[in-house]
Amino acid sequence: EVHLMESGGELVQPGGSLRLSCAASGFNFIVSAMTWVRQAPGKGLEWVSSITSLNGRDYADSVKGRFTISRDNTKNRLYLQMNSLRSEDTALYYCTPGWSRAGPWPTRGQGTQVTVSS
Asked: Which of 36, 56, 58 has its CA nearest to residue 45?
């Protein structure tokens, strides 16, 4: 059974930084691409970033240059380093297996809440 647990979200001021983490189990993480998506209040899921098993990366234009996706295959962990945070980054962030810019993303954890506010 696939299990994903996101963590690291919290309240942060604009311009601040956070590092999200996703603990994955129940599938072959090492050979899997992984993706971060987010859901802002009242909106649908939005693709944020993806990483291949060989560390190829892709980012949504809205986060390019501010966010960095990474992975640790020894720990089955996915990360999202978020810098220069803006109010529009406020959302529930999820990790999901696979590489998909358009979704759907049916397999997700419970999410971790990021709130950017002064």
From this structure: 36
Evaluate the omega torsion of the peptide bond into residue 104 and state whether it is cis, within 30 degrees of 0: yes
pLDDT tens string 18-33: 999 999 999 999 999 9
Residue numbers of the chain with a pLDDT score lower than 50: none
pLDDT of residue 13: 98
Cα–Cα distance measured from residue 41 to residue 81, given in angstroms and rounded to the nearest whole number: 21
Please answer whether residues 94 and 7 qualify as being in contact, where contact means their C-beta atoms are separated by less than 8 angstroms.
no
Strand runs labelled E in the chain = 3-7, 11-12, 18-25, 34-39, 45-51, 57-59, 67-72, 77-82, 91-97, 112-116
Contact 108, 2 (CB under 8 A): no
What's the gap between Cα 51 and its chain centre?
A: 10
Q: Give phi and psi for 33, each to the nearest 5.
A: -70, 155
Residues 104 and 101: their CA atoms lie apart, in Å, by 9
